[in-house]
């Protein structure tokens, strides 16, 4: 895949870039190692001031970087501005909370005494250079939610971004430089995916984090396992959206639309499978289809647009194959189901709702990465949980019920890294984020995410010998 900005709304190639050569990669790896030796000794207060400066710069740049993201991967400009604002919020959150999240911990005095020691401490120390392999769908947020905690912990970062968002990647490199971070603290590597293996195997890389496809995750996990390096993986998702009889149906249906088509439907944590109790199925479906059908598909740079194009021609082709397979095996198309007739250029796809889904359809088990929702009618909570868990993924989930017993049952039994009641899944810097099963392992965000790339060190002191 060439490293290039290609406008998904038109298919026009706007700018191309040459991949870094081996000498340039070597220079950046060496710089990262040298910088880490000094940067790890800086105070948390110093790092926080640098991160606050980066946040202020990003806030000033919000409109420009939003337009750039829209041109590179097709998200609506309104959602791009919101993404930039979310990054600013996360930077400031980590600048404010890092000191308490990284504070030394003291084991119980009884355990220290039992060990024969005088005192002991658990300290969070940085690992080193972390390689971040990041996707195009949230080209700013995915990187910042790694970079903010990693830099605050004293690590340095090397970014291998998706090849279709090179200008956003270079912007991030420049942002941290302008904020005053030491040269080498954060570096963008414009390289193809074929360069990842050698970079990851390099002894100067201490760990890696990847958000992306399942095949990419398997590859990185395999390489990292071979050289015994820590990894965090956030892979695909096919999140259930369960609606039970006590739900506020109008609110559930309106939120369902946002949960499905956010980022033009290209989000791992988007709700994708809508599992509805038979008592409210017809009413929910009517509201949901009505709202999905009313969405405006168009130029993502126009403020009135609700849904822009998919990021690539291949992405649309993959989505079409899933829908065509389901339709051929008996799925009912309640709205959408194809390319908009008024959009001859670009990689647009209509907001689509499919009903009568069965396990023999690919879309039942595969992730639909675009504005396509699947509907399931279930008889009770037991069946709802069976359908919700009948997936190889386990990223997050949404459950609509006012019943406390049902909430407790779902919190216990839904196989996912998050269970969100009466609202949609959304990442926040204060909450750990990540999945189970084939959605990956490890956590991002909160203190849990920050400590993923720390050397959790036990510091033990024996009894002090009496002076003679």
Question: Could you please describe the fold and organization of this structure?
Answer:
This protein is of the alpha/beta class. It has 2 domains: 3-235 and 439-459, 3-Layer(aba) Sandwich (Aldehyde Dehydrogenase, Chain A, domain 1), CATH 3.40.605; 239-421, Aldehyde Dehydrogenase, Chain A, domain 2 (3-Layer(aba) Sandwich). Helix content is 42%, strand content 19%. The chain has helices spanning 22-39, 44-73, 77-101, 109-114, 141-152, 166-178, 196-201, 214-226, 249-261, 278-293, 313-328, 362-365, 381-389, 404-413, 446-451, and strands at 3-6, 13-17, 119-126, 129-133, 156-160, 186-188, 205-211, 230-234, 239-243, 271-277, 332-335, 352-355, 372-378, 393-394, 398-400, 420-421, 436-437, 440-441, 454-461. The radius of gyration is 24 Å and the shape is globular. The termini are far apart. The relative contact order is 0.14.
Q: What is the secondary structure topology, with strand pairs?
A:
Blueprint lengths: L2 E4 L6 E5 L4 H18 L4 H30 L3 H25 L7 H6 L4 E8 L2 E5 L7 H12 L3 E5 L5 H13 L7 E3 L7 H6 L3 E7 L2 H13 L3 E5 L4 E5 L5 H13 L9 E7 H16 L19 H16 L3 E4 L16 E4 L6 H4 L6 E7 L2 H9 L3 E2 L3 E3 L3 H10 L6 E2 L14 E2 L2 E2 L4 H6 L2 E8 L7
Parallel strand pairs: 4-5, 4-7, 5-6, 7-8, 9-10, 9-15, 10-13, 12-13, 15-16
Antiparallel strand pairs: 1-2, 3-19, 8-18, 11-12, 14-17
- Overall strand count: 19
Largest sheet descriptor: 7 strands, mixed
Q: From the 3D structure, determine the CATH topology of the largest domain.
A: Aldehyde Dehydrogenase, Chain A, domain 1
What count of domains describes the coordinates?
Answer: 2
Over the alpha carbons, how many angstroms does the gyration radius reach? Answer: 24 Å
């Amino acid at each position: 895949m060439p490293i290039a900005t290609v406008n998904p709304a038109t298919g026009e190639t706007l700018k191309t870039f040459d991949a870094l050569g081996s000498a340039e990669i070597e220079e950046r790896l060496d710089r990262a190692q040298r910088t880490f030796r000094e940067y790890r000794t800086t105070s948390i207060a110093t790092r926080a001031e640098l991160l606050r400066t980066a946040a202020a710069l990003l806030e000033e740049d919000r409109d420009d970087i939003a337009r750039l993201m829209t041109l590179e991967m097709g998200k609506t400009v309104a959602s791009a501005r919101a993404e930039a604002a979310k990054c600013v919020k996360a930077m400031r959150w980590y600048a404010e909370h890092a000191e308490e999240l990284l504070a030394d911990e003291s084991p119980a005095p009884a355990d220290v005494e039992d060990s024969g020691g005088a005192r002991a401490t658990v300290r969070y120390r940085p690992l080193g250079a972390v390689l971040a392999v990041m996707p195009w769908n949230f080209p700013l947020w995915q990187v910042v939610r790694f970079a903010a905690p990693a830099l605050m912990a004293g690590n340095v970062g090397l970014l291998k971004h998706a090849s279709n968002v090179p200008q956003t990647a270079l912007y991030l490199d420049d942002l941290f430089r302008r904020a005053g971070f030491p040269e080498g603290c954060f570096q963008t590597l414009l390289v193809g995916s074929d360069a990842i293996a050698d970079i990851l195997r390099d002894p100067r890389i201490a760990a890696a984090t990847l958000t992306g496809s399942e095949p990419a995750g398997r590859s990185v996990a395999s390489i990292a396992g071979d050289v015994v390096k820590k990894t965090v993986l956030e892979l695909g998702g096919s999140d259930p959206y369960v609606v039970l009889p006590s739900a506020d149906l109008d609110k559930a249906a309106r939120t369902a639309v946002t949960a499905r088509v956010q980022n033009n439907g290209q989000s791992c944590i988007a709700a994708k499978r809508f599992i509805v109790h038979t008592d409210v199925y017809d009413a929910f479906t009517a509201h949901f289809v009505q709202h999905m059908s009313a969405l405006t598909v168009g130029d993502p740079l126009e403020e009135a647009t609700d849904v822009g194009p998919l990021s690539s021609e291949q992405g649309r082709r993959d989505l079409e194959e899933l829908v065509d397979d389901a339709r051929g095996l008996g799925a009912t198309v309640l709205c959408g189901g194809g390319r908009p007739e008024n959009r001859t250029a670009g990689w647009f796809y209509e907001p689509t709702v499919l009903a009568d889904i069965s396990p023999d359809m690919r879309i039942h088990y595969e992730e639909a990465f675009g504005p396509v929702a699947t509907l399931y009618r279930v008889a009770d909570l037991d069946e709802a949980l069976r359908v919700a868990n009948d997936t190889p993924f386990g990223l997050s989930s949404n459950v609509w019920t006012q019943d406390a017993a049902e909430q407790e049952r779902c919190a216990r039994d839904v196989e996912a890294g998050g269970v969100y009641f009466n609202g949609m899944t959304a990442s926040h810097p204060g909450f750990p984020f990540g999945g189970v099963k084939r959605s990956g392992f490890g956590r991002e965000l909160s203190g849990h995410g920050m400590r993923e790339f720390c050397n959790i060190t036990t510091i033990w002191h024996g009894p002090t010998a009496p002076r003679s």
